[in-house]
């Protein structure tokens, strides 16, 4: 049956990917799995209409439009080029950046964010996911920037941390003995996790080592505590500090790059659950529903209908508040299964992603900040040229 076979849409590397908005929403459709085929054959619940739009084909049909719809033929490398490269570029330009993988368990979140990390990008390993590719590009860009701006004595330090939020508790994946860490906010560091391990890394290989170690600890922790890692969120953070001098002025800047693998978005059943399981179910619902509320409030704020964003209502949103809204760039990769077995969850993910698409926060302000920076750079150059001319 030809109508069920997905059409192919190639991804374009689009330099204007971030042009209009601080939030970009990508849908990634994974291939049908063999178990789905054995249950439902190849019956699908979605049809891709273009590189930006997708239709949920059950009743009533609903069509959705996003910044990008990536079908099952899209490789890890091309997804990285379209969504990952601009993220690193934004980070180099001083924005806090955050990428979330959202979707039901089994929809491809971990495949997208990590993929085969053991081999990294060695030998052009196609299965290597977003995070190791981001590391490589980040360090390439750092190297290049240092060469270009040698006159300004540009230097970088990059520190990595890796944590898990389970049951509204923060665990340090780089130090499994540290559990129930606390969030703190102060003037110097902003929002941070107290006593969280931060390893300085000087290249992509060292960053990848931290990722591999943390991912292994996550597996051990979930086995020991008898729970699936699909019920926790993981957050890998690169804290990038840069220093440079220009016209005798010392500059100092911090930016965060967060890569987040969210808990499965399927509704957690609290009926029948008791004790720890019940608490767990309601806590998972809490951080994902708070993420939803934060998004709704950001839409209201951008429409000037509200001021309040409930970041504090969950650990996840409180931790990431600087990366959601304000001077930050967020990418949401909403992962879906194309199988009609998953139609209901797929629709719920498409609706979540659709709401996220409506955030238009601070777009003027951040545009202003960037253009003001450029303006200042230009004026400084002009000033030194004039100073040179008039000899003072
Ligand atoms: P999640 O983290 O959302 O629970 P996974 O990333 O573990 O889901 O994916 C479930 C299974 O589907 C894994 O075996 C994974 O390798 C496979 N898979 C997911 N996305 C893709 C894709 N785009 N291409 C090929 N296989 C995929
Ligand atoms: Mg996973």
TrEMBL record:
Is Nucleotide-binding given among the entry's keywords?
yes
Q: Does the keyword Transcription regulation apply?
A: no
Instruction: Tell me which species this is from.
Output: Triticum turgidum subsp. durum (Durum wheat)
The UniProt annotation places ATP binding at 103-110
Residue stretches making up the Kinesin motor domain: 22-359
GO annotation, cellular component aspect: microtubule
Q: What is this protein called?
A: Kinesin-like protein
Lineage at the top is: Eukaryota, Viridiplantae, Streptophyta, Embryophyta, Tracheophyta
Tell me the keywords, alphabetical order.
Answer: ATP-binding, Coiled coil, Microtubule, Motor protein, Nucleotide-binding
Q: Name one GO biological process term.
A: microtubule-based movement
Q: Which residues of the full protein are shown?
A: 8 to 399 of 611
Q: Which GO terms describe its molecular function?
A: ATP binding; microtubule binding; microtubule motor activity
Q: Which residues form a coiled coil?
A: none
């Amino acid at each position: 049956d030809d109508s069920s076979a997905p059409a192919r849409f190639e991804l374009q590397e689009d330099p204007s990917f971030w042009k209009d908005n601080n939030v970009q929403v990508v849908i990634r459709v994974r291939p049908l799995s063999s178990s789905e085929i054995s249950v439902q054959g190849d019956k699908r619940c979605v049809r891709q209409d273009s590189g930006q739009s997708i239709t949920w084909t059950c009743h009533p049909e609903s069509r959705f439009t996003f910044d990008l719809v990536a079908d099952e033929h899209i490789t890890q490398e091309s997804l990285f080029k379209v969504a990952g490269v601009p993220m690193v570029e934004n980070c180099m330009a001083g924005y806090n950046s955050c990428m979330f993988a959202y979707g039901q368990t089994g929809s491809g979140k971990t495949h997208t964010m990590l993929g085969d990390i053991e081999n990294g990008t060695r030998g052009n390993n196609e299965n290597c996911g977003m995070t190791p590719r981001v590391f490589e590009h980040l360090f390439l860009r750092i190297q290049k920037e240092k060469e270009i701006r040698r006159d300004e004595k540009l230097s970088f330090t990059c520190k990595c941390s890796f944590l898990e939020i389970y049951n509204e508790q923060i665990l340090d994946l780089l130090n499994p003995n540290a559990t129930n860490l606390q969030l703190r906010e102060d003037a110097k560091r902003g929002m941070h996790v107290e006593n969280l391990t931060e390893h300085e890394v000087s290249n992509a290989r060292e960053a990848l080592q931290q990722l591999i170690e943390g991912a292994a600890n996550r597996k051990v922790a979930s086995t020991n505590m008898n729970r699936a890692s699909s019920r926790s969120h993981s957050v890998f953070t690169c804290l990038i500090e840069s220093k440079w001098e220009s016209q005798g002025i010392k500059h100092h800047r911090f930016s965060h790059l967060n890569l987040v693998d969210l808990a499965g978005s399927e509704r957690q059943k609290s009926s029948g659950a008791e004790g720890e399981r019940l608490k767990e179910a309601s806590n998972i619902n809490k951080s994902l529903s708070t993420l939803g509320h934060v998004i709704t409030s950001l839409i209201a704020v951008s429409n000037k209908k509200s001021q309040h964003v409930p970041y504090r209502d969950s650990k996840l949103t409180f931790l990431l508040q600087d990366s959601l809204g304000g001077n930050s760039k967020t990418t949401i990769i909403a992962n879906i299964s194309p199988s009609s077995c998953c139609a209901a969850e797929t629709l719920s993910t498409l609706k979540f992603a659709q709401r996220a698409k409506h955030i238009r926060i601070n777009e003027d302000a951040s545009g202003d900040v960037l253009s003001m920076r450029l303006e200042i750079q230009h004026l400084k150059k002009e000033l030194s040229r004039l100073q040179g001319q008039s000899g003072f």
